[in-house]
Amino acid sequence: MALLSRKLQSFLVSSSITNSPSFAVTKTIIIPSQLLLQSNNDSNVSFISDLFKKTHNWDTLTRTLSSVQLTHSLVQQVLLQLKLPEHARSALNFFYWSAKTQNFQHQIYSYCIAIHIVVHAQQLAEAKILIQSALKTSESNSTRFCLVESLLGSYKVVDSSPVVFDLLVQAYAKLKMFEDGFEVSCYLENHGFCLNLSSFNALLHGMQKSGENAMVWKVYGHMIRNRKYPNEITVRTMIGALCKEGKLQVVVNLLDRIHGKRCSPIVIVNTNLVFKVIEEGRIEEGMELLKRMLQKNLILDTIASSFIVYTKLKLGNLESAWEVYDEMLKRDFSANSFLFSSFIKAYCERGKIQEAESMLREMKNMGLKPYDETFNHLIEACTKAGELDASVKHFEEMIDRGLVPSCSTFNEMVRGLCEIGDSGKANGFLTLVLDKGLSPNEVTYIHLMSAYGKQGKIQQVLKLYYEMEYRSLSPGLPVFTTLIRGLCDCGKVEEAEKYLRIMKGRSIGISEEICEALITCYLRNGDKTRAALLHNEMVARGMKTMKII
């Protein structure tokens, strides 16, 4: 039997399947032959099925049935005559024989009958071959539910087993049809069939190996919501996904701030899932996941309670968050750095700097360590409030603790310092954080270059420009605008034109501000001809122009 399957597997993969729009057997006309007559169709079906029960020799079968013209109706009736487990080999032989020797293209419904027969006979290897063949040849069908619908439609006819649907989803995973496999699993659940954990593990493993991390977490969340709880294989796959995303250490750090102790892999995985869902704003889903996890001890109470408080803060309900927090303390839960930083963030977002500073002091008095995000919130809030001294103080404390601000936080502080004319201090801080590992972006340099440009310090502007080039930051229009405007203000029109040519060489569009700076510089130098040429170019480009006297 195995030899027969191997011989025909390659053929089935390449065969096309004509799929009927419904589960009903396609109505066809059987052409009368010397052997079988339409009026005696039941006898004909019995004759063919009995023949295949007696012999498996294809040459004998082909000679005996040489005048038979197969139809979908006839094929399906013969298969049903051979549906008992003891006749599964005969049914499979008939299915392969008709496809190979008669060049018969089986319908999806015929495939499904054959699949059910071999599954019922526990010939799972044969079933996998048939399912994969059916999936490959039905890919062009307009609906992804074509095969599963046919399997459901023929399920009771053959008295099959739910194992068939696990094999189907596992086949999707093997063929890397992950999204289709997941949608089909949901479809089956809606029709009362609950897949085995091994089927979900197959999907997760395939997705993780293929780098489809978004789908990995989507499927895992679905499993938890539907009480399909993970085993060791599931957890190992999910940890692999975290590693691939580069987020494992991030989640471990989060747990250190909440729990303060080493956590098991299952807790790490579930913490990431819930936090991810909450951060994406799917609050109700996050709370549902927490409920399911707590019921099965898949997450620690401390973590769950902290996430509930965090959710209240994320929704903007500060008073409710304090109530939940106080209730936590009454239940002997300890305060933690994550919650204090969350409250500090909430106060900072409301512009309540004093309250945020008070929380920081209380946090330190309790022996809790502020971390990078704690200081990021305070630095940004103090800068926006115009309290630059406080912002710098938090920045310096952060550096002393061996922490580095986020790029956006550092940019905000640099912006504030540059606006009050303290670009020198801001540039000094840039040197400091570069040594600590911060990677600045274009915004960082734009703030500094703009400030130096306003101060007429064109050499500092050029130095920052070449520093950007050295760091492969690829200066864009804002940087060139600042640079060219600064050169024009200093009367260095030739150098300004040099960077204009560099812009054009990099296909960076010229802005009205650049053109006006150059025209002004030309006029200041008495070069009305070049000013007029650039003015005309602006007109040709449809740009707003300044008046040239």
Automatic annotation (TrEMBL):
Keywords: Repeat. PPR repeats lie at residues 196-230, 231-265, 336-370, 371-405, 406-440, 441-475, 476-510. SUPFAM superfamilies: TPR-like (SSF48452). It comes from the Eukaryota. One of its GO terms (biological process) is mitochondrion organization. One of its GO terms (cellular component) is mitochondrion. InterPro entries: Mito_RNA_Proc_CCM1, PPR_rpt, TPR-like_helical_dom_sf. GO terms for molecular function: mRNA binding. Belongs to the PPR family. P subfamily. This is Pentacotripeptide-repeat region of PRORP domain-containing protein. It comes from Gossypium barbadense (Sea Island cotton).
